[in-house]
Structures are given as structure tokens and as C-alpha cells.
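[scheduler] slot 2 assigned
[scheduler] job type: sequence-to-structure, two independent chains
[scheduler] chain ordering preserved from manifest
[runner] begin chain α
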Amino acid sequence: MNYDKSQTSGSILQPDAAGHISTAPRESQRFQALFYSYANAVYRYHQAAQEHQPTRQDYEEWLEGLPEAIRKGMAAKGFEQCRTILGFTRYVNEKHDVGMEAYVCRLMGKQEYQEFKEQTA
């Protein structure tokens, strides 16, 4: 059986994923589809942080909440290099009341998101 694209939200699943999924063993195709959908939604969540135009103040606040050793490493990298660090992008989104779980659930759809969570529990 080949993978049926209608099994997941077409807006989330990347075109190259369908080819990969269709070559996976039949029993794992649904999980692979859900995994790709989830991963793509998480990627979009982190990319969305740039819409909030992170500032140096955001960066400084984020640094304050990090353990000392990590804080030193991130401070050495500087603001520009940290703009795409997942921890920082999540901080920026959360600061603007955009939670990752709700964002991903909205993109995937409740039913698909719940199915993914059940399969990864």
C-alpha cells in the first residue's frame, strides 16, 4: 500500500516527505506521516518568532533565565547568532503568548495532533 497524502494535513506535510513515507514499511507509514507533520509544524512555530521582531532586550531577558554555563556560551555568540537558537525563538513566541503546543495543534488539527501524541506517549 502506498502512502495516501489525504491522511495528513496537506498544508503541513512537505512535498518531499510523501516520497519518503511511501517507501517506508506499510506499518510505519502513518507514524512517519504524523512525524513529518509534527516536525514541520514545530519548524514553522520557531520561524514565526521572527514575526515578533526579537530585540536585544528580549535577548538579554532570555540570557538572564539560562543556567550560568549556557548563559556564558550564548552571550559569547551574541544576539545575531542567537536569533535562530530554538530556546530563544521559543522564548520570543511565549513572551508574545504563542505557546508551541497550541500552535502545533492548530496547524496539525486536533485529531491529527492527538493521534501523534498517543503514538509517541
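[runner] end chain α
[runner] begin chain β
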Amino acid sequence: MQSRQVPRVPERIPNPEFHLMATDPEQAIEHLEKLAGELEARRFAVRVHALPGLTPHLNVINVAAPVLTEKVFAAPGSDGIWAFHFPWPQLIAPVHDVSVAADRIERVLAEVDR
């Protein structure tokens, strides 16, 4: 019997603009809580996770389709400007644009006909 070779998964190329570990967890939590308020107003379930030793993040769930869920992080870029990011890492919006960030998250987690 011939053995099958498993295709190699390419390594992820890190985004140099994204620093997952927030230098100031309290500031990250503050930004995430503002975003949480905006997303709650749009009928999403949200919860800020801030456990000691772990990077704070916001868990966002579309209550109309609970399988649609995502984590959101707040962290400074290499330029020092704070922004919201998806974990893969993809920039969502600067933290001062909470409404724009909520719009983009809503698009990513939208069920059909939303």
C-alpha cells in the first residue's frame, strides 16, 4: 500500500502592523467596551473577555444565527495608533471609528437578508 502525502499548509505570514498583545490591557478593554455598546445596539450578543495573562478580546455573536461568531481585538499598530482587528489578523477600523468598526463586523457576521 502506498502512503499518501499530506499537502503542506503554508505558514501564515504575520502582519507587521498588528501586535496581538496589547501593551495596555486596560486601554484595550476600554476600547472593546465602547465597541460592545455599539454592537449591542445592533442586536448582537457581546462579551469582553479579560483574563489575567491573556490578551483581552470581545466575543461577538449574531443572535439571529449563533453560528456566526467572531473575536475582536483592540491593539496598537507599529505607529502607536489603536485599532480593532479580527484574529486572522485583519484591520477592522481605528478605535475612534466605533461606528465604522461595528458596520464592518456586522457585514462579516450578517445572516442572509440582514
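[runner] end chain β
[qc] chain β: Residues 6-19 have pLDDT under 50 and may be disordered.
[scheduler] slot 2 released
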